[in-house]
Design a protein that fits this description.
It is built from 23 helices and 11 strands. It is α/β, with parallel strands linked by helices and 522 residues long. It folds into 3 domains: 196 residues, no CATH class; 148 residues, Rossmann fold (3-Layer(aba) Sandwich); 145 residues, no CATH class. The strands form 4 sheets. Strands 4-7-10-1-11 form a 5-stranded parallel sheet, with helices on both faces. A two-stranded antiparallel sheet has the order 2-3. The protein starts with 5 loop residues before the first helix and ends in a 19-residue tail after the last helix. The relative contact order is 0.07.
C-alpha cells in the first residue's frame, strides 16, 4: 500500500532534503523552492541573506503548515497490517522530524536564552514531556517500523543542538556576503559533518575526537568561529532529571598562546603539581583536565608554540592523554580541541617552525576566515551590517546604537571610503567604532588610504576650506608621529589645539557651480 500521491511524494522528498542539507548553503533554498513550487515566495530567496533564526518567514510557515497537514493525512490511513514500502516509511518519518523540530523551535530558543542567563547550571527543561508525547503519537503507529530507530531523548538533544548551532553561527558571524555565507556553511559542516544522517546515527559520539584548525588573516574572528563550533556540540538529555547533561554556555575554554611563556602555557594546558616550578605553590588542574567530554579547548595563535609543546600536544591528539607538569601519572583529555593561526602554515612547516606530524593531526577539519576587504568587496552592504552589529555590542540602548551606527557608517564612507582595505580586518573596524564613539574620529595606523590621496587631490583643486585642510593635515601628522606632543611640536601648535582639530571633523561645504561639486570624503 502506497501512502503518498505523486504530488505528496515530491513534497515529502523535498522536505527530507531540507532535513539533511547544509542549511547555510544554496541547497536549502533549492529544496524549499522544490517543496513549495508556485507557492514559493522569492523574498529573501538569496541563499546567503535569510537568517535561520527567523520562524515567521512566509515560506517557512507554508512548509510547516503543509508538512503538518500531510503528517495528519498519512497517519490517519496508516494500516495496522500489511507491508509498507521502505521509502514511504522513511518519508513519513522525515516529515514528522521536520514538523516536530518546527513545532518546538521557539521553546528551544527560550531554553537557549535561559541557559545563557540562568544562575543554575543546566536548568530544567519542562517542555520535553509534551515533546515525548508528540513523538509517541506520531512515531508509534500500529505497524510502524521506523527507518532510523531513535529515542525521544536523542531526537530532542539533536534538535536542541541544531537550534543552538543556528543561534551561535548567527551570533558570532555577521554579514550577508558570499564569503561569510560560505564561512557559515563551513562552520555547520565542522559541527555536523557533511552527512547529517550519519552524524545523528553515530558520529555525534565521536566527532569531538577530531581537532579543528581555523586559519585566516589576523582580526578576522577566528576565535568567534571557534566559539560557534565549541558551543554547538551535542549534549545528551537525561529525561529522569529533565536536564541536559551539562551547561553548554560554560563549556568553552580559550587560551591565547602568544601571550604566555612556554612554562605558563604548559601549566594552563596540562596543569602542575606543587613545586613543579618556581611559583607552583599548589596542585593545579589544567584546562585539558577541566574540560568535560562535550567541552572545547581553544588554542589561539598555535603557530607561536615552541616545538617541545607541539610534541606534547601531538600526544594529546594521538592518544588523548597527557601529564601534569612534575607528575608521571597519565590523565585523559575528553573534549574537543580547536586551534587557530594567522600564519602561513605551509611556510612554517618548510622552515621547520611547525612540525608536519602535528599539522596533519590538526588539519582533519579546517576552516578559513575571509578578510573584511573580501566581504565588503562582494557585498558593500556588509559594512553597514557589521557597523550595526558592533554598535549593538558597544551600547546597551538599541535606539542609541542604531543612531551611532548610522553616524559611524557615514563617517567611514566620507573619510576612509568604501574601498578602504581594512588591513586589521574586523578587529580594526571594531576599534574604529570605539574611536568614533569616544573621539568622533579614527586614525588608521596605515596612512596609505584613499582618504590621504583624496584630501590632497582636493586641496590641489582648491575644494577644501581652511578648517578642512587643517583637520586633514593634523590627522596625517598625528598618524606619522604617533603622539599629540610630537604632532604639536612638528605643527608648531599647542597640544590642545591639535587634539581639537583631530576630534572635530568639519562639515564639507555645499556644492557650488565650478567648484567640483564638493564630492569625495571630507
Amino acid at each position: 500500500m502506497k501512502l503518498f500521491t505523486p504530488e505528496e511524494r515530491r513534497f515529502a522528498r523535498a522536505v527530507e532534503r531540507l532535513n539533511y542539507c547544509n542549511p547555510f548553503l544554496a541547497e536549502r533554498i533549492d529544496a524549499e523552492r522544490e517543496a513549495l513550487g508556485a507557492a514559493f515566495e522569492e523574498r529573501d530567496a538569496e541563499w546567503n541573506r535569510r537568517s535561520l533564526l527567523e520562524t515567521r518567514h512566509p515560506n517557512l510557515l507554508r512548509l510547516w503548515t503543509k508538512t503538518g497537514e500531510l503528517v495528519g493525512r498519512v497517519a490517519a490511513k496508516w494500516p495496522a497490517r500489511g507491508k509498507i514500502p521502505a521509502e514511504d516509511t522513511r518519508l513519513y518519518e522525515n516529515l514528522v522530524f521536520y514538523k516536530l523540530f518546527h513545532d518546538y523551535c521557539e521553546d528551544f530558543d527560550r531554553a537557549i536564552t535561559g541557559a545563557q542567563t540562568a544562575r543554575e547550571s543546566s536548568p530544567k527543561v519542562e517542555f520535553f514531556r509534551s515533546f515525548r508525547t508528540d513523538c509517541a503519537t506520531l512515531l508509534k503507529l500500529r505497524g510502524f517500523r521506523p527507518a532510523e530507530p531513535t529515542s525521544p531523548e536523542h531526537l530532542f538533544a539533536g534538535f536542541f543542538q541544531v537550534r543552538r548551532a543556528f543561534h551561535h553561527i548567527h551570533r558570532f558571524v555577521a554579514g550577508t556576503s558570499r564569503p561569510i555565507a560560505r564561512l557559515r556553511g563551513a562552520i555547520w559542516q565542522s559541527i555536523f559533518t557533511h552527512d547529517m544522517r550519519r552524524y545523528r546515527r553515530s558520529l555525534y559520539r565521536s566527532v569531538g575526537d577530531f581537532a579543528t584548525l581555523v586559519t585566516g588573516p589576523s582580526g578576522t574572528g577566528k576565535e568567534l568561529v571557534a566559539r560557534a563550533i565549541g558551543l554547538s556540540r551535542y549534549l545528551a538529555f537525561d529525561s529522569r532529571r529533565g536536564r541536559f547533561e551539562t551547561d553548554f554556555s560554560g563549556s568553552f575554554y580559550p587560551l591565547n598562546l602568544s601571550a604566555l611563556s612556554p612554562t605558563l602555557i604548559e601549566s594552563e594546558l596540562f596543569g602542575h603539581r606543587k613545586g613543579a616550578f618556581t611559583g607552583a605553590v599548589d596542585h593545579r588542574e589544567g584546562w585539558l583536565e577541566i574540560c568535560p567530554a562535550n567541552g572545547t579547548v581553544f588554542l589561539d595563535e598555535i603557530g607561536e608554540v615552541a616545538t617541545p609543546i607541539q610534541v606534547k600536544l601531538l600526544r594529546v591528539l594521538q592518544e588523548r592523554t597527557f601529564q601534569r607538569l612534575g607528575e608521571t601519572d597519565e590523565r585523559r583529555f575528553r573534549g574537543k580541541l580547536i586551534a587557530a593561526t594567522n600564519r602561513d602554515v605551509a611556510e612554517e612547516i618548510r622552515t621547520d617552525r611547525f612540525r608536519t606530524d602535528f599539522y596533519y593531526r590538526l588539519c582533519a577539519d579546517q576552516v578559513t576566515t575571509p578578510s573584511l576587504h573580501d566581504q565588503i568587496a562582494d557585498s558593500p552592504g556588509d559594512l553597514e551590517t557589521l557597523t550595526r552589529f558592533i554598535a549593538r555590542r558597544l551600547m546597551e540602548d538599541e535606539t542609541d546604537a542604531a543612531a551611532f551606527a548610522a553616524e559611524a557608517h557615514d563617517w567611514i564612507e566620507r573619510h576612509l571610503g568604501i574601498d578602504y582595505t581594512w588591513p586589521g580586518n574586523f578587529r580594526e573596524l571594531e576599534q574604529c567604532l570605539r574611536n568614533l564613539l569616544i573621539r568622533r574620529t579614527y586614525l588608521p595606523a596605515n596612512t596609505n588610504t584613499r582618504e590621504t590621496g583624496d584630501w590632497l587631490e582636493r586641496a590641489r583643486r582648491h575644494e577644501l576650506t581652511a578648517d578642512q585642510l587643517l583637520h586633514h593635515y593634523c590627522q596625517s601628522v598625528y598618524v606619522r608621529t604617533g603622539t599629540l606632543e610630537a604632532a604639536a611640536r612638528l605643527l608648531g601648535l599647542d597640544r590642545r589645539t591639535v587634539k581639537s582639530r583631530l576630534e572635530n571633523s568639519p562639515t564639507p561645504p555645499s556644492a557650488t557651480p565650478g567648484a567640483g561639486g564638493g564630492h569625495g570624503p571630507a
